[in-house]
């Protein structure tokens, strides 16, 4: 239920700020079917940065307008400072927060259907009975050039298209919201998906180091904290075995391992990937013909790929090649974001599939949902296109990691030491070809953590893809687990 419009939230501009650019929030009151009354504050927060010229301050100048939607309970039990706040964002880089917002966390969600039973256009919106808003306030954040977020006229968007710049901006948005809403004493959580998990760790580090703001928990959905585990670069063997269990799981989903349980198929692939496959890759041309033939045979059994393909790739193939090859005989390619989805490729003879049938299937429903919801139910109007997944953030700069892998595990190790109350919630999808579960497990296994720190992790596995909440049963389980996580404070 939506109430009449409330007065817009007053802009909060620091002294010396340019007056022509201000926050433009729309405020509405609503009630969940459960009876919880809550307020939405939707719009763009002006990000300002102090300019210094010749050693003298030129004031706080507007640099970007950051789109966000905040959900806060009205008159919460025990007061607002006892109620947790979850700050959430997706990844990409270049993805808006629409996926977590309208697929998992928010009180209203997209009616997209699922693999094999998609909802046809014009799609729709439905209530989310398990919304995390029942347990915590929510703040959804869209970084620069995603959603309605843009730089202020005259500024360079490229200034924010990089690891460090993006980290600092999101941290500052969280600090501002926390300060303006008097929530420094509330339990605080960061929830990110995909690149958003890397961002969450980096932002948590920035908040702690720069502002002394310690978060209670990190929710990592479809995790990548060390990008070397996903980078099929020449001479880098690690990603190949880390993807093998995902290939086996997706083959199982498509009926290629008849009569076997998924858990058995995945366990077999993990064991082979950890031992014999690693050995074979590192031996290279030093494998004799018999050893090579054995590896080809076992990889074919585990993945159900053709032995000729495995030989042609010299035991090494990336996900785009797997996507094109697994169901080639059925004239289908499988999804990367979610390997349960399949569709006919544009060119059956292609060696590599650059299209993603899973992303194509759900992009339309999510786009329709957010564009309707923002205006019709949240009362925010803006004629800009809502950028759901955009290339406008490219090229993305990792200049901080020149010559080394993009890796934030050191930051997480440090946070777990300095904040003994910090907990980490991790969600994996078995059919996720973008951030395979075995790659994330590899990262945890190589982090320098004591037993106390490892005990503060909780791990949750789903028979779904990167966005496991697309599958209704997984969404229900995922929200129940997240509710327990945020209740821990």
Describe the largest sheet.
10 strands, mixed
Q: Give the averaged pLDDT, no decimals.
A: 93
Shape: globular
Separation of the first and last Cα atoms = 30 Å
Record field, number of beta strands: 16
Structural class: alpha/beta
Low-confidence parts: 1-7, 10-19
User: What percent strand?
Assistant: 15-25%
Taking all Cα atoms into account, the compactness measure Rg is: 23 Å
Number of helices: 13
Helix content: 25-40%
Note the run of SSEs as H and E. EEEEHEEEEEEHEHEHHHHHEEHHEHHEH
Task: Describe the fold and architecture.
By secondary structure, the chain is an alpha/beta fold. Helix content is 34%, strand content 19%. It is built from 13 helices and 16 strands. The strands form 4 sheets. Strands 1, 2, 3, 4, 9, 10, 11, 12, 15 and 16 form a 10-stranded mixed sheet that branches. A two-stranded antiparallel sheet has the order 5-8. The chain has a two-stranded antiparallel ribbon with strand order 6-7. Helix 2 crosses helix 3 (195-211). The radius of gyration is 23 Å and the shape is globular. The two termini are 30 Å apart. The model is unreliable at 1-7 and 10-19 (pLDDT under 50).
């Amino acid at each position: 239920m939506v109430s009449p419009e409330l007065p817009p939230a007053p802009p909060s501009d620091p002294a010396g700020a340019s007056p022509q650019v201000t926050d433009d929030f729309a405020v509405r009151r609503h009630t969940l079917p459960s009876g919880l009354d809550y307020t939405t504050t939707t719009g763009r927060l002006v990000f300002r940065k102090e300019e210094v010229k010749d050693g003298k301050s030129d004031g706080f100048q507007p640099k970007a307008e950051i789109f966000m939607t905040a959900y806060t309970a009205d008159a919460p039990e025990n007061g607002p400072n006892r109620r947790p706040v979850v700050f959430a964002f997706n990844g990409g880089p270049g993805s808006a927060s629409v996926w977590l917002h309208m697929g998992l966390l928010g009180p209203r969600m997209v009616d997209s259907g699922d693999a094999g039973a998609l909802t046809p256009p014009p799609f729709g919106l439905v209530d989310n009975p398990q919304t995390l808003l029942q347990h915590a306030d929510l703040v959804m954040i869209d970084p620069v050039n995603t959603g309605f977020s843009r730089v202020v006229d005259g500024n360079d968007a490229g200034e924010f298209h990089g690891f460090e710049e993006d980290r600092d901006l999101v941290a500052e948005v969280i600090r501002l919201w926390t300060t303006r809403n008097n929530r420094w004493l509330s339990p605080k959580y960061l929830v990110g998906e995909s690149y958003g998990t890397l961002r969450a760790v980096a932002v948590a580090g920035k908040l702690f180091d720069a502002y002394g703001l310690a978060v209670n928990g990190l929710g990592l959905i479809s995790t990548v904290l060390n990008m070397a585990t996903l980078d099929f670069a020449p001479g880098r063997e690690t990603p190949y075995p880390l993807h093998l269990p995902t290939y086996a799981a997706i083959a199982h989903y498509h009926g290629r391992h008849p009569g076997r349980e998924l858990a058995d198929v995945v366990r077999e692939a993990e064991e082979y990937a950890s031992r014999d496959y690693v050995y074979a890759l590192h031996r290279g041309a030093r494998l004799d013909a018999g050893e090579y033939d054995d590896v080809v045979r076992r990889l074919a059994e585990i993945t159900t790929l053709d032995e000729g393909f495995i030989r042609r790739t010299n035991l090494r193939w990336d996900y785009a090649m797997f996507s094109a090859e697994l169901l080639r005989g059925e004239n289908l390619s499988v999804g990367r974001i979610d390997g349960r989805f399949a569709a006919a490729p544009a060119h059956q003879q292609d060696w590599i599939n650059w299209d993603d049938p899973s992303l194509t299937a759900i992009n339309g429903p999510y786009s329709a949902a957010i564009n309707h919801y923002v205006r019709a139910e949240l009362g925010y109007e803006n004629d800009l296109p809502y950028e759901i997944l955009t290339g406008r953030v490219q090229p993305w700069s990792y200049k901080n990691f020149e010559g080394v892998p993009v890796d934030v595990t050191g930051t997480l190790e440090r946070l777990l030491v300095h904040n003994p109350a910090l907990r980490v919630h991790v969600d994996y999808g078995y059919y996720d070809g973008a951030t395979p579960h075995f790659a994330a497990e590899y990262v945890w296994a190589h982090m320098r953590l004591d037993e106390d720190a490892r005990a503060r992790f909780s791990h949750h596995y789903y028979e779904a893809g990167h966005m496991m909440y697309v599958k209704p049963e997984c969404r229900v389980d995922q929200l129940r687990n997240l509710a327990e996580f945020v209740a821990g404070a």
